[in-house]
Amino acid sequence: MDDTLDDQHWVFGYGSLIYKVDFPYLEREIASLRGWSRRFWQGSVDHRGTPESPGRVVTLIPDTHALCRGVAFLVDESVFAHLDHREKNGYERHKTQLCLEERQQTVTGTFYIAAADNPAFLGDAPDPELARHIAESHGPSGSNAQYLLRLADALRDIGEHDPHVLNLERELLALTQKG
Ligand code: SIN
Protein backbone atom coordinates (compact mmCIF):
# COMPACT_ATOMS: atom_id res chain seq x y z
CA MET A 1 0.00 0.00 0.00
CA ASP A 2 1.27 3.49 -0.79
CA ASP A 3 1.83 5.44 2.44
CA THR A 4 1.42 8.97 1.12
CA LEU A 5 0.25 10.81 -1.94
CA ASP A 6 2.84 10.79 -4.76
CA ASP A 7 4.06 14.30 -3.99
CA GLN A 8 4.08 13.97 -0.17
CA HIS A 9 6.80 12.14 1.72
CA TRP A 10 7.80 11.37 5.29
CA VAL A 11 11.27 12.67 6.18
CA PHE A 12 12.98 11.38 9.32
CA GLY A 13 15.07 13.88 11.30
CA TYR A 14 17.49 12.66 13.96
CA GLY A 15 19.82 15.69 14.28
CA SER A 16 19.30 19.37 13.57
CA LEU A 17 16.20 18.57 11.51
CA ILE A 18 14.45 17.87 14.81
CA TYR A 19 14.99 21.32 16.30
CA LYS A 20 15.69 23.63 13.36
CA VAL A 21 12.55 23.24 11.32
CA ASP A 22 13.10 25.84 8.60
CA PHE A 23 10.82 24.10 6.08
CA PRO A 24 7.04 23.77 5.74
CA TYR A 25 5.46 20.48 6.75
CA LEU A 26 1.98 18.99 6.80
CA GLU A 27 2.36 16.67 9.79
CA ARG A 28 4.95 15.96 12.49
CA GLU A 29 5.26 12.84 14.56
CA ILE A 30 7.83 11.16 16.83
CA ALA A 31 9.24 8.23 14.92
CA SER A 32 11.88 5.55 15.13
CA LEU A 33 14.21 3.78 12.82
CA ARG A 34 15.57 0.31 13.52
CA GLY A 35 19.21 -0.67 12.85
CA TRP A 36 20.94 2.72 13.20
CA SER A 37 22.73 4.68 15.95
CA ARG A 38 23.15 8.47 16.11
CA ARG A 39 26.84 9.50 16.37
CA PHE A 40 28.82 12.77 16.24
CA TRP A 41 31.08 11.30 13.59
CA GLN A 42 30.46 13.61 10.64
CA GLY A 43 32.60 16.67 9.99
CA SER A 44 30.78 19.95 9.33
CA VAL A 45 32.53 22.42 7.07
CA ASP A 46 29.46 24.50 6.22
CA HIS A 47 27.28 24.79 9.35
CA ARG A 48 29.18 24.20 12.61
CA GLY A 49 32.73 24.46 11.37
CA THR A 50 34.75 25.61 8.37
CA PRO A 51 36.77 23.76 5.70
CA GLU A 52 39.94 24.66 7.66
CA SER A 53 38.47 23.62 10.98
CA PRO A 54 35.46 21.29 10.62
CA GLY A 55 33.00 20.90 13.48
CA ARG A 56 31.24 17.67 14.40
CA VAL A 57 27.60 16.86 13.69
CA VAL A 58 25.54 13.70 13.80
CA THR A 59 25.11 11.00 11.23
CA LEU A 60 23.65 7.51 11.54
CA ILE A 61 25.86 4.45 11.78
CA PRO A 62 24.53 0.96 10.95
CA ASP A 63 23.94 -0.90 14.23
CA THR A 64 21.82 -4.03 13.93
CA HIS A 65 20.16 -4.01 17.34
CA ALA A 66 19.82 -0.24 17.81
CA LEU A 67 16.70 1.89 17.59
CA CYS A 68 17.11 5.56 16.71
CA ARG A 69 14.26 7.84 17.79
CA GLY A 70 13.65 11.20 16.15
CA VAL A 71 10.91 13.16 14.44
CA ALA A 72 9.23 12.45 11.10
CA PHE A 73 7.76 15.27 9.02
CA LEU A 74 5.29 14.82 6.19
CA VAL A 75 6.51 17.22 3.51
CA ASP A 76 5.72 18.16 -0.02
CA GLU A 77 8.18 16.92 -2.66
CA SER A 78 9.27 20.52 -3.29
CA VAL A 79 10.85 20.70 0.22
CA PHE A 80 13.65 18.33 -0.86
CA ALA A 81 15.38 21.08 -2.85
CA HIS A 82 15.89 23.00 0.40
CA LEU A 83 16.79 19.92 2.46
CA ASP A 84 19.27 18.63 -0.14
CA HIS A 85 21.01 21.99 -0.05
CA ARG A 86 21.02 22.12 3.75
CA GLU A 87 22.42 18.58 4.02
CA LYS A 88 24.86 18.91 1.11
CA ASN A 89 28.04 18.35 3.14
CA GLY A 90 28.34 14.59 2.70
CA TYR A 91 24.74 13.52 3.35
CA GLU A 92 22.71 11.45 0.90
CA ARG A 93 19.05 10.58 0.85
CA HIS A 94 18.01 7.00 1.65
CA LYS A 95 14.63 5.32 1.83
CA THR A 96 13.66 3.34 4.90
CA GLN A 97 10.78 1.94 6.89
CA LEU A 98 9.87 4.31 9.74
CA CYS A 99 7.65 3.59 12.69
CA LEU A 100 5.32 6.51 13.49
CA GLU A 101 4.98 6.07 17.23
CA GLU A 102 1.62 7.67 18.00
CA ARG A 103 -0.32 6.12 15.19
CA GLN A 104 1.70 2.87 15.46
CA GLN A 105 2.09 2.75 11.74
CA THR A 106 5.04 1.77 9.58
CA VAL A 107 5.57 3.99 6.57
CA THR A 108 8.20 4.43 3.91
CA GLY A 109 10.29 7.51 4.61
CA THR A 110 13.47 9.30 3.60
CA PHE A 111 16.43 10.13 5.81
CA TYR A 112 19.80 11.72 5.22
CA ILE A 113 22.97 9.91 6.17
CA ALA A 114 26.60 10.86 5.83
CA ALA A 115 28.28 7.51 5.14
CA ALA A 116 31.80 6.59 6.24
CA ASP A 117 33.17 7.06 2.70
CA ASN A 118 32.20 10.74 2.36
CA PRO A 119 35.16 13.16 2.39
CA ALA A 120 33.97 15.03 5.50
CA PHE A 121 33.52 11.90 7.66
CA LEU A 122 35.63 12.03 10.85
CA GLY A 123 34.63 8.84 12.65
CA ASP A 124 34.89 7.86 16.28
CA ALA A 125 37.04 9.31 19.06
CA PRO A 126 36.87 9.11 22.88
CA ASP A 127 34.03 11.22 24.32
CA PRO A 128 36.32 13.81 26.03
CA GLU A 129 38.04 14.40 22.68
CA LEU A 130 34.71 14.71 20.84
CA ALA A 131 33.44 17.18 23.45
CA ARG A 132 36.60 19.30 23.25
CA HIS A 133 36.39 19.35 19.45
CA ILE A 134 32.73 20.46 19.69
CA ALA A 135 33.55 23.10 22.32
CA GLU A 136 36.18 24.65 20.06
CA SER A 137 34.28 24.65 16.73
CA HIS A 138 32.22 27.40 15.13
CA GLY A 139 30.70 27.86 11.68
CA PRO A 140 28.23 29.95 9.68
CA SER A 141 25.22 28.41 11.50
CA GLY A 142 26.68 29.12 14.96
CA SER A 143 28.72 27.30 17.54
CA ASN A 144 29.10 23.55 17.51
CA ALA A 145 28.32 23.58 21.24
CA GLN A 146 24.91 25.11 20.50
CA TYR A 147 24.20 22.28 17.99
CA LEU A 148 24.92 19.67 20.67
CA LEU A 149 22.99 21.44 23.45
CA ARG A 150 19.95 22.09 21.27
CA LEU A 151 19.93 18.49 20.07
CA ALA A 152 20.15 17.16 23.63
CA ASP A 153 17.21 19.41 24.64
CA ALA A 154 15.17 18.43 21.60
CA LEU A 155 15.73 14.74 22.32
CA ARG A 156 14.70 15.21 25.97
CA ASP A 157 11.54 16.95 24.71
CA ILE A 158 10.55 13.81 22.82
CA GLY A 159 11.48 11.58 25.77
CA GLU A 160 14.62 10.22 24.17
CA HIS A 161 17.68 9.72 26.37
CA ASP A 162 20.42 8.94 23.89
CA PRO A 163 23.50 7.99 25.96
CA HIS A 164 25.97 9.14 23.28
CA VAL A 165 24.42 12.63 23.10
CA LEU A 166 23.90 12.93 26.87
CA ASN A 167 27.49 11.91 27.65
CA LEU A 168 28.81 14.49 25.21
CA GLU A 169 26.51 17.13 26.68
CA ARG A 170 27.85 16.32 30.16
CA GLU A 171 31.47 16.46 28.96
CA LEU A 172 30.84 19.74 27.15
CA LEU A 173 29.19 21.39 30.16
CA ALA A 174 32.07 20.24 32.38
CA LEU A 175 34.55 21.86 29.98
CA THR A 176 32.56 25.09 29.81
CA GLN A 177 32.32 25.26 33.60
CA LYS A 178 36.08 24.76 33.90
CA GLY A 179 36.36 27.83 31.63
C1 SIN B 1 19.12 15.16 10.47
O1 SIN B 1 18.89 16.03 11.29
O2 SIN B 1 18.26 14.28 10.24
C2 SIN B 1 20.38 15.13 9.66
C3 SIN B 1 21.61 15.54 10.40
C4 SIN B 1 21.69 17.01 10.76
O3 SIN B 1 21.44 17.87 9.90
O4 SIN B 1 21.97 17.32 11.92
Short description:
The protein has a single domain (8-178), classed as Hypothetical upf0131 protein ytfp.
Strand order of the largest sheet: 1-3-2-4-5
Segments where pLDDT lies below 50 for 5+ residues? none
As for the CATH topology, it is Hypothetical upf0131 protein ytfp
Percent range for β-strand residues: 35-45%
Shape: globular
Order of helices and strands: EHEEHEEHEEHH
Number of helices: 5
**CATH superfamily label:** Gamma-glutamyl cyclotransferase-like
CATH class: Alpha Beta
Number of domains: 1
Identify the CATH architecture.
Roll
What's the pLDDT, averaged over the residues? 95
**What does the radius of gyration come to?**
16 Å
Structural class: alpha+beta
Report on this model:
By secondary structure, the protein is an alpha+beta fold. It is 29% helix and 39% strand. It has helices spanning 16-19, 79-86, 127-136, 144-157, 163-178; strands at residues 8-13, 27-44, 55-76, 91-100, 105-114, 138-139, 142-143. The N and C termini lie far apart (56 Å). It is built from five helices and seven strands, in the order βαββαββαββαα. Helix 3 packs across helix 5 (163-178) and helix 4 packs across helix 5 (163-178). The protein has one domain (8-178): Gamma-glutamyl cyclotransferase-like (Hypothetical upf0131 protein ytfp), CATH 3.10.490. It has a five-stranded mixed barrel with strand order 1-3-2-4-5. Strands 6-7 form a two-stranded antiparallel sheet. It binds succinic acid. Succinic acid (SIN) is lined by residues 13-17, 57-58, 87, 112.
